[in-house]
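Researcher: Here's a chain I'd like modeled. Treat it as a single chain, no partners, no ligands.
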Amino acid sequence: MLKINENYLKLQASYLFSDIARRVADFQAKHPDREVIKLGIGDVTRALPPACIEAFHRAVDEMADDATFRGYGPEQGYGFLRQAIAEHDFQARGAEISADEIFVSDGAKCDTGNIQELFSTDARVAIPDPVYPVYLDTNVMAGRTGGFRDGRYQGIVYLDSTRENDYVPALPDEPVDLIYLCFPNNPTGSTISRDQLATWVDFARDQKALILFDAAYEAFIRDETLPHSIFEIPGAREVAIEFRSFSKNAGFTGTRCAYTVVPKECTAWDSAGNRQAVHPLWNRRHCTKFNGVSYPVQRAAEAVYSPEGQAQTRELVDYYLRNADHIAAAVKELGFTFVGGANSPYIWIWGDRDSWDFFDLLLDRAGVVCTPGAGFGKCGQGYIRLSAFNSHDNVVRAMERIRGALA
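Model: Modeled as a single isolated chain. Structure tokens:
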């Protein structure tokens, strides 16, 4: 008799964004004549940068010629892209990252979900609350948690991110092995200072723990006192893995390209207490379970680092930041307490009511889709998240509708 992995039965309801999509589809079926503006899921809306499109076309033309055709590429990514990433995203900021420490993939979501496979099922995991659901759900699937009680899984160390701590969690007061951090944060839009991040690195070194640092939104940082990478912090190479994506800065949500950085000094321990390098473990996992990102997509990603590509991607990010600024100004005018909207595409709003009730109110009265904070964890209850990823005209109209709905 074949048995299932019963850890999947612990998962609560459906995946957050699937649940939102279902509710929106139900609403549209009942109100086919009403336009819905989506400021919920963090999907971009503007076209790929011209430099990326041109590189994409050139690479497709190469694939059409026997002399330049390419079949399977290196699972870790082509050298031209890995080298460009190392030089522009890290070495230019004083972070010692080499090309062979970079693993190109089809998404930060996949990597942040898959990385936990490298570690023992009895690892003590610390996860922020609220949090991007993938961090938590993949550890539930792996069997690192107990049952779900009072809005939380037993066995997880939750790091509360609240107004009281400016949405930057305090260090845990108990031993942990694996720590998830995300800054600029999804969903709150909060940022972390260099000193605060250094405190986490020191803690991980003291605890012999590992930080999984999600920097998917680092391109939105405009305050240059803030760190873009955890590897700007001394000592982080031994205790951190970083995840990045081309989805938000260059609009690759539909073409899929991201990367993970695993320094060679990064270590964990085996059951006998011996240090084991994580880099070769991730390399083995990557080679066994992943066939690599397509050559045209990687050439398009490489073009992000050309002078034209850098200017065009910055303009894209600035466009969404202007949207975020408009949302933040409207939310402030309405009298809500919020965080985000600066150095981040997300605005995290305290609604002083049930999150799903607030979601339904905005959908029903304004035809605007938000993301209910309760879907991100117990500390998200009472909040909603608005996303700046839409056209500016839609953002303006959405905020006008919200003003009308809440007047």
